[in-house]
Amino acid sequence: MKRVPTVITGTVGMDAHVIGTKVLSRALRDAGFKVIELGMQVTPEEFISVAQETRADAILMSSLYGMAELDLKGFNEKRMEAGLGDVLLYIGGNLVIGRSDNQEVEKKFKALGFDRVYPPETDTEVGIADLKKDLKVRGKM
Amino acid sequence: MKKLRISNKRIDDDLLMKKRREELDKWPTGREVDFDEAVAYQKSLPDSKIWWKVMVKLREEGRMSVFPRAGTPILENMIELCQSLRDSGVVLIPVTTDSYTRLGQYEKIEEILKECYKTGKPLLNGFPIINYGVKKTRKLIESVDAAFSPRGAGGEIAIASGMTTAEAGIGFLGFGSYSKKMTIRELVERSQNGMRTIGWYADRGVILCKDLHGWLPSAPFPLSVNIVCLIIEAVTAAEQGQKALYPLVHCMGNMAQDMAWIRLAPRIIREYLDKFGYKDCMIIGTCPAQTPLFPVAMDLGGAFAYLTYVSMVGALSKANAVDLRSIDEGAGVPTRETHKVSYRAAKWIFDIVREQKINFEMKDVAVEEKVTEIEVRAILDKILDLGDGDIVDGTIKAVESGVLDSPWSPNVNVKDKVLGVRDARGACRYLEFGNLPLPKQVKEFHRRKVAEREKLEGRKADYHTAVRDLWSLSKGKIVGIPPYNQ
Asked: Where are the domains of chain A?
């Protein structure tokens, strides 16, 4: 039987911009994933504990309010401590305050442990195609 | 007809004073607030700092101001920012608080604020009113000759500092758009039976003004539910002693609808305030607002066009204020320069178009106004019916049963059974009616309009159509057919 990967979605920190993660969650479900939809304002700790409980394959975070970097301070260390080093980490949205260069933002969040970093207005199909590719490489799909 | 009423247990003054003090005791700066001194300070303010008087003056003179959003954490930079807004013709100045202030995380803010001063960088996405306290915030207010409004938070520190707007009554914004788990009963409990600080100030001759938001239609969706909520907000605020208010009217980008809603909202709110017996509560203006998804930061042309569109709709509708975001809205927190250039553009339209005082009637506007009015009355009738004449009780039952419903809410307690799409001319229509109690002929009207778009695009409208329409204004394409350049 084909394995159904489990993914977690939500906005990180105190961000209330929920529409993106709602659209993404449904698109993931339609694409055959098992989606744990945490909705808005999910703490980094909650992402970690839910990932442990559900043995998730990936965490897909959204943030539109510019404070993701503050919210994710120390997140990578905590997820490593929690033994979640092989969980794929994606993030997308307006990730820093002010006008910014997408490549620099990508570099910054990759340094925080994220595997993929997306600018605003990315189509869900793009993220889902990447996810399938990354999961296949890791033998999880 | 049943007797109209508002269930509301006004707390007595002793309890009110205790609750106000408790709220202020959450952070040391609260001790700076002396209630009587705050009243005296408010009374000493010049007319140019009193929000409702500024709005009335604008209306009387046939002029308008931008009502922007602005907040940056370092006090000196905030003063400079507000002064530069004033220099761009803005007389209604916001003090947008950061997200942590809105959640009461003052200790965390204190640390970040230190870091801001150390690095000179704005590490918070707004101005933390509570952490600054009365003395420092007064410094901001006294530095710029304009009226100030706290956004998102601020409580009595904002009032004592000389800001002249404050919240009272039921506010759907916190429930429908910013809360994940609040129930409608909790919202009512919090806003009806709790603080009536605004009434306390009004009793002492200080009129604090309030803008009504209603339940935000975060995506293309007809405005009827929102306008019903504006009415609920208005009468419940008036019951708490609010004497001056004005509606924000969320423009969705179809000009006939936007202008219809701007005409309808103040008229029908006035009617219900009178019906409920609040004839002394003033409606001091109307403020068209930008609500749907903004163009991304890199699309400067689109961002400019969007803000000038809403300015134009406001100017043609003879509004006295327009709630505008800067061209950097899509980028997060705007810089001083982008604020300036954005509101200069709006001011240009105000000075050129608003002053022409153009009178014209448009058939499409009349149709949209009529349709929305029928919907608003149908939903309100049902609410009053559910509450047996009590608008608060009816509202609780209406939200719980989906008689009041809005799409894309983050709140798990919202039914979320409704959905909107645009029609062949970009107007917002219902794709899913959920449990909204709309008359049959109105539902038929929407179905007919959606069918026109389906014919144009050659496919059925569904959930994916609604998702595509989320981007209609941010990507600059309101009608479903592909743009000419593709």
From this structure: 6-136
CATH number belonging to domain A6-136: 3.40.50.280
Taking the C-alpha atoms of residue B332 and residue B148, their distance in angstroms, rounded to an integer, is 22
Rounded to the nearest 10 degrees, the angle between the axes of helix B255-275 and helix B224-239 is 30
- What would the pLDDT profile of A85-134 be if each residue is shown by its tens digit? 999 999 999 888 766 788 999 999 999 999 999 998 889 999 999 999 99
Cβ–Cβ below 8 Å for A120 and B125: no
Angle, alpha carbons A24-A30-A31 (nearest 5°): 90
Cβ separation of B408 and A16 shorter than 8 Å?
no
ipTM of the complex: 0.86
Asked whether B168 and B210 are in contact (CB, 8 A), the reply is: yes
Q: What is the pLDDT of residues B205-229, one digit of tens each?
A: 999 999 999 999 889 999 999 999 9
* Cα angle for residues A93, A99, A101 (degrees, 5° grid): 75
Catalytic residue among B23, B32, B167, B233: B167
Say if residue B156 is exposed, middle or buried (CB neighbours under 10 Å; 0-12, 13-18, 19+): buried
Task: List CB contacts (< 8 A) between A9 and chain B.
Answer: none
Q: pTM (2 decimals)?
A: 0.92
